[in-house]
Structure formats: structure tokens, C-alpha cells
Amino acid sequence: MNQAAPSLSSARHARLFVALAMAGSTLLTWAPFLGKRDLLYRYWDGPHYAYLAKTLYRVPIDHPFTPYHLTPAYYATHFPLYPLSIRLLVPLTLGHYFPAMLLSTLLASVVAAILFFEILVRWDLVASPVWTGILFAFLPPRWVLYHSVGASEPLFMVFVFAAFLAYAANRTGPLILAIALASLTRIMGVLLVPAFMMAALLDRRPRQVLWLPVSLLGVAALFCWHRVLYGDFFAYFTRNVEQSGHIARVPLRLMWDLAGAGDLHGTELTFGLFALYGIGTLALARHRAIFFYGLAFLGLNLFVFHYDLARMFLPIAPFSLLVGYDRVLSQKPCRWGLPLVVILDVIYTRGLIPTNVVVPWVFESLGRVLR
Length: 371
What we know:
The protein is mainly alpha-helical and 371 residues long. The protein has helices at residues 4-30, 38-42, 46-55, 81-89, 97-122, 129-135, 141-146, 153-168, 172-183, 192-202, 206-211, 217-230, 235-243, 253-260, 264-282, 288-301, 309-312, 317-323, 326-329, 332-336, 338-352, 360-370.
């Protein structure tokens, strides 16, 4: 017992360290906006989630966002678990929805950091789980932004990491539950099903292969609810695919269009994203479940036709970037460069947040609804 105690104590300190790094990263992002918190509250899509937390999807025709020409069916694209988490935290913020929104994001981010650290340790993925856990708080910059505003990504990461831990423990029930919860947070959670099915097949877990599709029942139930609310079982796809055109019929359509328009910056950024994440994912080939998870998202993103492609890569960033490039990132020069990364993150978020916010008069109208 005397030999085990230091190890347990060290593990507790490591978890605390990565949790504090994540919380510290969020606080650094918030710092420039302490005197104008409304900019954090107004950053899209946070106001939508706060509104849904209040109304629980009972959205009238004359809702506060009608100036943006959004029908009630638009909210089929916002899945329910993140708004529900906000609603649960509202009593802690004395009935204020926007502070509850940021609190939900912060808590989910910290839990995600701890669970990611557990994965790194359990699967022996990197040279230093603590160092990689710290990097997870600061890279990539798009993740820093979305673990600091109203967004569903941090909660989605919690369930994704929980699914990987359940798979590592060969616990089918918790794995199915984690995938179902991830899918009810963001639609992309359904990609966990084929990813884990492929891994389970190669790992000779036939029972798991047969049971994993059960996790899709949560999304099926949600779509049935959409049929009741909006009269359209496929309301999510009607809005997100047909109207917005976020999915193209041919791969790399976004890159083709950017190149054809002479947008050198956009074309090279898109090329860099696919090259960076593609190589990082290939580096994970010996970890079957993680590798197939990365491939599933790479395959989806080939058909994404949306300006915010960097956001679409966030679900695989912890693995494809931080684990895939660990041989580079664990080197001493990279560790010395962390302060520079932190400074760049602050510049990035401070400059970007004010550019993508709800207009003040719509926000005021929303505020009256949330009282």
C-alpha cells in the first residue's frame, strides 16, 4: 500500500493540473471581455442555446430571432442536451440563462480535459499525458474559442471520451449510452457507431458489433419528436442540407470553389487542414477505435461545404493533432513555445469574438424573453 499511495496521489494531482489548465484557458479568453460580458453571451450560437434552454423548443412564430428569417423548424439543427444542461444550471446562477450557459461550457470543458487525460493514460498514447492534457486546453485555437462561449462542442467531447473509456473497459452498456448521449448533443455523434463497430469487429467483439446500433435509437426518438414539433421527421436534414447547403455531393467541393474563385488564402487553409488532420489520423493506425473514429470524420469533412471547416475538425483534434503529432509536440522546444501559443490564443479569440455576435437590438429582445 505504501508504494501505491504516491502513484494515486500523483494521478490526482495530474487530473487537477489538466483541469486547472482548461479552466485557466477559458478564464484567459474571458478576461478581455469582463467589462463587456454581453459579447461573450452574444457569440453565435450561444444565444440560440440559451433561448432553447428557456423555451424547451416551444418556439413561437414571432420569436426573438425572426429578423434573421429563421422559422421555428430551424431549431431542429440544435440538439437538446446542451440546452438542457443550461436549464439544469440556471438555479445556480439565480435564474440567469447566459451565465448558466457559460458555466455549462466551462464545466463540460473541465470534465472533458479530465476524461481525455484518462484516455491518454489508459491507452498509453503519448510520452507525457499531463503535457498533452495541458495542450488540449490551448490547441487548436478554434477549440479554445468554443470551450469559452456558448457551444455544444465541450459537452460532445465529454460523451465521446466517455465512449472511448467504455470501449477500453469492454463495457457495452456504457458505450451505447455514451454514443447515444453524444448523438443527442451533436448529430456527428452517430459517426461513433460505424467507428466502434469496425474496431469491435477487428477486436473480435461480435456481441458489441450487434448491440452498437441500439445507440441510434436516441436520434431516432429525437427525429420522431421533430415530426411532432415541425411536421417533418427529417427536419434536421431539411434545414441543414437542403436549405443551407452544408453538405456537397462531391468531395472537396469547398476547396474546388475556393481555388476557382482565386481565394489563395482559403484554398491553402483548406489544403492545410486536410493534410494536417489526415496525416495525424494515419499516425493513429495502431489504435483501432481512435483511428476509425478519425477516418469517419475525415470522410464526412470531405463533403462539408461550409466556411467554418476548422470547426468541423474539432471532434478529432485531440487525437489527430495532439496524439498524432506527439513525437513533435513532446519535444522540449515545443514546451518552451507554450507561452507563445497562449498569447496567440488570446489575440485570436479577442479579435474574433466581437465579429460574430447577435446584433444588440435582437439581443435585447431575447433578454426580455429570458427574464
